[in-house]
Each structure stands twice: as C-alpha cells, then as structure tokens.
Write a structure and sequence with these properties.
two-stranded antiparallel sheet, 13 helices, 77% helix, globular, 333 residues, mainly alpha
Length: 333
C-alpha cells in the first residue's frame, strides 16, 4: 500500500527521464556518434562519405539484421545467416560463370538460402533442437561444405569481361540516380515492417517470442510458424548474399559470417526502441545505421582495426547497459 502512496512523488521526474532514455537512447546515441565523428574527422560529413555509409556499410548489414530480427522475434536466434548468404552467393556466381541467365542464377541463389533456412526449420520445428544449437550446427556444417566445394576455400571469380550487365546492375546500378542495393534494402525493410505490423503471421511470430505457452495452448500451430520464419530468415539473408556477390563479382567462402555479430548487435540494440524491449524493424534499422556510422567513423580516424572492433563492442555494450539500467529505473525496480 505504501508503494502506491510514495512512488509517484519520489520517483516521478527520475522515472520520466529514465523512460525517455529508454525510449530514445538509441536515437540519442546515433546523434552523439554522428556529432563526434563530424568533429573528429573533416571528411566524415561529406556527401560522398555519407553515401558510402549508406551503400557500403548500411545496406547489407540492414538486410541481414532484418533477417535476424525475424529469428529473434520468434524467441530464437539464427547463427547461420552468414551461411545462407554464402550458399546463395556460391550458387549465384557458379551459375553465372556457367553461362546461365542472371535471373535464373539469382533464383537459384535465393533457393540456396531458403534451403539453409529449411534445414534449420527441420531441426528446430521437426526435431525440437533449440534454435541456438540448430543454427550453430548449420554454421559449422555450412563452413565445411564451402571448403569442400571450393577445394579448401578458393574464391570463385567472374572474369572482368564475363560479367553480365544485369549482374553488374544489381551491385552497382542505379535507378534515377538511386543505388540499386540501397533500393533493395529499403524494399526488404518496408516489407518486413508490413509483415510485423499488418499480417497475422507477424503478430503470431511476435506472440511466440513473448508467450510461447499461451500461443501453444490457444491452438495456433506454433512449430509451423517458427519453421516458416526460419525459411524466411534464410531467404532474406540470401538477398544480401546476391547483392554482396554482385558488388564484388566474387564468391569468397564464409564471407557472410562477417555480418553475423553485427546483425545480432543491431537487432538487440534495436530492442531498446521498443517499450517492451522486443525486436522491431525500426529499432533494427537504427541499430544497423548506428553500427555503420561507427564503423565508417573509426575507419576514417585511422584507428587500428582491432581497436575498431573493441570500440564497436563497447558501444553495443554501452547502449544495452544504459537501456537496461534506465528500464529498471523507469519501472521503479
């Protein structure tokens, strides 16, 4: 009874401030790092560099992070998003190198990524393996399969004079001056936002992540929804694999795994934007943008690569820790 009598008077303003930090901490962090790098490096705040952040840093990370958002929203995680990227990339390059039409090669790449997701779906929904262990196993299997397919990890190159125009357009083209890779990323982000906000499937996935027991007892086929989710994760990651390959005109084994940790980081940073601390598309996009700005800014400062990784990890930890502390303060815990 005393709790109701004292809490508003003693914690009203701090709770209001803490609530604001919880809700808008990610945006404040983005503004802070943007201002810091603008001050520290004269080349940061230039049109060319800002375009480079969006096209070279943000695009692929945002797509992979959206894929990760679906997995985390369902209450799991997918450590094999990089494997789905790599399988899609290998199928895409191999078929183009064999003289097949680019459209057919792209479809094969998407199918390869979806296959990785279907394999995870079988392990998780069919056998009952936890998402962490299932996708970790897929990560290791996928890495070994790539080594076998490429004679120990040799890249697969497209000859400079053998790159089809449609292939080049996907990686370097523009529509009315707007880069194609960034346009694809925006379409993926918008589609994901519609799925979560406007479809029954999206609402069920979010419910499974929050209260799986309630969903199960309500008669909804939760395993089937989770299975579709992981196939979708593989498919979205495959889109990133196609763009990556079209950009560098090369397949490099296990290169997709370079996006794994940042995708996880962007997704969990994005949860700070949700009042319930849940994965959401808007938060993930801002998380990916924050990590992209930090990566670009640290590169311009000529900081040692390993210290760049330390800086990125520290930032992720700081944003999540600040959100956790502020959330506890806001709830009066």
């Amino acid at each position: 009874m005393s709790l109701h009598a004292t809490t508003p008077a003693t914690t009203g303003l701090p709770r209001l401030i803490a609530g604001g930090v919880v809700r808008y901490g990610l945006i404040l962090a983005l503004i802070a790092v943007f201002a810091a790098f603008s001050t520290a490096t004269p080349t940061f705040l230039t049109l060319a560099n800002l375009q480079s952040i969006l096209v070279n840093n943000f695009t692929l990370l945002a797509i992979v992070s959206i894929a990760m958002t679906f997995a985390v929203a369902s209450g799991g995680i997918d450590l094999s998003v990089g494997t789905a990227m790599d399988f899609a990339s290998f199928a895409f390059v191999s078929l183009v190198l064999a003289g097949q039409p680019v459209a057919l090669a792209a479809l094969a790449g998407l199918a390869a990524g979806a296959f990785v997701g279907a394999f995870n779906a079988f392990l998780i929904s069919g056998i009952g393996v936890s998402p962490f262990l299932a996708t970790l196993g897929t990560l290791f299997i996928g890495r070994s399969v790539q080594q076998l397919l490429t004679n120990g990890g040799n890249p697969v190159y497209l000859p400079p004079n053998g790159v089809p125009e449609a292939f080049r357009f996907l990686g370097h083209g523009a529509i009315a001056g707007f880069p194609v890779p960034l346009a694809v990323a925006i379409v993926v982000i918008a589609a994901a936002a519609v799925v979560f906000a406007r479809t029954r499937f999206g609402r069920v996935i979010l419910s499974i992540g929050i209260q799986p027991g309630v969903v199960r007892y309500s008669g909804i086929a939760a395993p089937a929804h989770v299975a579709v989710t992981f196939v979708l994760v593989g498919l979205i990651a495959a889109i990133a694999g196609l763009i990556l390959t079209a950009t560098v005109t090369t397949y490099i084994p296990s290169s997709g795994n370079a996006f794994l940790l940042n995708a996880i980081g962007a997704t969990f940073i994005g949860t700070t934007l949700s009042p319930l601390g849940r994965p959401n598309v808007g938060g993930t996009v801002l998380g990916a943008l924050l990590l992209s700005v930090v990566a670009n800014g640290l590169l311009l400062t000529d900081l040692n690569f390993y210290w760049q990784q330390v800086g990125t990890g520290t930032l992720i930890f700081a944003v999540l820790a600040l959100s956790f502390i502020s959330r506890r303060a806001a709830s009066g815990a």
